[in-house]
Amino acid sequence: MTNGNADQQSKGPAFEWWMFSFFGFGAGFSAFVSLLIPPFVTEATGNAADAGVVMAIISLAAVLGPVLGGFADKYRAHRLVLNLGMFGMALAFAAYALSAGDSVVTALDAILMGTSIAAINAVGPVFILGAGLSQTLQAKRLTALNLMAPIGQVVGGALLGAAAAAGWSYPQRFWLSAAFMLVSALVVLFSSGKAAARIHTDTPVKASKGEESAKTTGLKQVMISTFGVYLLILILSSIGNNGINAQIANILPNVYGIDQTTTSGLISLAGLLSIVAMFLAGAWMGRSGATVDITGGNIIRLVGAAAMALLGLAADAPVLLAAGAMQIFYFSNSFVRLAQPVVAVRFATIPAGAASGWVIGASAIGSFVGSLLGGWLADTVGFNAINWMAVVSIGVAVLLIFVNLWPAERQKRKEEAARSA
Predict the structure, then answer these.
(1) Backbone dihedral region for residue 169 (phi beyond 0: left; psi -120 to 50: alpha; all else: beta)
(2) Is there a domain that residue 8 lies in?
(3) Does 343 reside within a domain?
(4) Residue 159: which residues within 8 A CB-CB, separation 6 or more?
(5) CATH no. for residue 300?
(6) pTM of the model
(7) Which 8-state DSSP code applies to residue 402?
(8) pLDDT tens for residues 323-351?
(9) Which long-range contacts (CB under 8 A, 24 or more apart) does 256-259 make?
C-alpha cells in the first residue's frame, strides 16, 4: 500500500512515540487486567465463574472493534479513537479501585474496559497499514508497534509483582494501574498528531452511493469467503488463548500450586520472551510471509496448551515444567499478533480500518466465549479444564488453517507471480 512520494514512504524511523499506545495496552491488558481482575472478582464473590463473566464482558465489549474502525475510517477520527481508548483504560482501572467489588459497577466497568481495549487495537495498526509505507518500512513499524505490548507486559507485571510483595491491597494496585495508564495516555495524546495526519491524507471521507451499495450487498459474500473463514480461525484460536489468559492468575495457583508473586513474575518473563519472539516473528514474516507466521504461532499455541493440560493431570507436576509450558503458550502471541492484521488485509476486500476492526471483533467473540466457558468449566470441573478447552479450540483452528487458508494462500501467490512475470 503506497501513496505520494515513494522515497518518503521508504524512509523514516521504525519507532514513533504514538506507539506508546501499545506499551500501555500491553501493561494494561496483559498484566493489569489479567493479574488483578480475575482474582479480585473471585475473592469478592467467592465464585470463579463470576470472574469468567467479568472477563467475558470485557471481551464482548471489544466486539465493537469493527464499529470503531469503521467510524475512524469514515470521519478521519483515528487519533480521537486511539486517545479515547487510552484514557478509557485509565478511567476503568480507577473505577475498579472505587468499586469495592460491587457487581453492577464491576460489570459496567468491564464494558468501558473492553471498549477502550477495542479502540486501541482497532485503529493502532491502521496508523501503519493506512499510511502508504513501503513494504520494508511497514514491516519495521509493525514490528516496533507490536514490540511495545510485551515490553509493557514486562513492566506492568514487574510493578504488580512488587506491589503484591509489598502487601498492597487490590484498590491500591488498581490505582497504580490507573496512574500508569494515565501517563501512557498523555504520551500518546501529544505524539499521535503527525502519524494520524498521514492516514487522513489517504482515507476518503465518504464512498459513493454505488460503492456503499456494493459493500452492503457484498457483506455476505465477504463473510463466506476466505476472509470469513479466517475470522473463524481467529475466533477459535482466541477462545483457547483468552480462555487461559482470563484465568491465568487462578490457573497457576490452583492447578500447579504457584503463588501470586511468582505468577506475576512469570507474566513478566513471558513478556520479556515475547520481545525475543517478536524479532523472530518479524524476520520470519519478512522472509516467508504473514500466513507462515500465523500458522507457526497457532501451532506453538497448541503445543503450549497441550503441555499445560497434560501437566495438570499430574498430582504433583514439577513447577518448572508447568512454568515452561505456560511460557511456550505465551511465546505464540507475538507470531499471531504480528501477522493477524496483515493476513486480514491480504484476504479482505474491505478497507484496512474495517479489516483491522473485524480482526478485533473476531478475537473479541473468541475472548467472550473463552472467558465465559472457561469460568463455567473452572467452577464445575476445575481450572485444568480450561487448558483442555484451549487444546480443542486451537486444534480446530490449526486444522482450518491447513484445510482452507493455505490453499487460498498458494492460489494468491500464483496470481502474484503471474502478475509480476
Answers:
(1) beta
(2) no
(3) yes
(4) 27, 31, 176, 180
(5) 1.20.1250.20
(6) 0.74
(7) I
(8) 999 999 999 998 998 889 889 888 887 77
(9) 256/311, 256/312, 256/317, 256/319, 256/322, 256/323, 257/319, 258/319, 258/322, 258/323
